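Narrative of activities, Objective 1.

The group set out to show that a structural description can be obtained from nothing but a protein's sequence at a throughput compatible with the screening campaign. Below is one input-output pair from the validation batch, recorded exactly as produced.
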Amino acid sequence: MGMNLKEKFQNINKKKVAIISGVLFAICVCSACAYEYFQMKGLKQAEMQQEKEIQSIMLQGQQAQAAQPMRPSDYKIGIEYNEAMKQDKPVFVLFYADWCRYCIGFMPTFQSLSKIYEDEYNFTKVNIEDEKYQKTVKEAGLTGFPTVYLMDPKYDNKVLLSNSLFSDMKSLRRELDRFLRIRNLIDKK
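Output recorded for this entry:
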């Protein structure tokens, strides 16, 4: 009537056992592969998210740099040259080129001086590549950049400042003050 376990195993077709074992093995392998696939996919998504965050931070940094003036023409300092030369106030004239790294480096000093001496001087910038200033640039006889002149339209006076002063704010201010002292002496006569 009843078969014992040993007899049941003997009656099972070995071919069926092999097929069932192969299917179970394939299911196990596919499950393991699917698990690994989804694990890797999750890691890749996390890496991509990190990469996006890094790119976003870098873009914000680049935008912040772009917001800061980089070229001398990006600085909004002073008044237009022709307007400055029509007034009686002495004029601090900066001749520059946007591609000149020394001009770029001088701009923070120029900006500081324009704030310190805003009551005593008119500040103006002349882009040597601007067509409207070609005559002025030619008359100035420039040999390098940046070039700074202190001009006094009232007395038709022009003083070229040495480039060696540009890196020393104290010496530069001493020259600006000297120009003003001489102008005041002339005014008193």
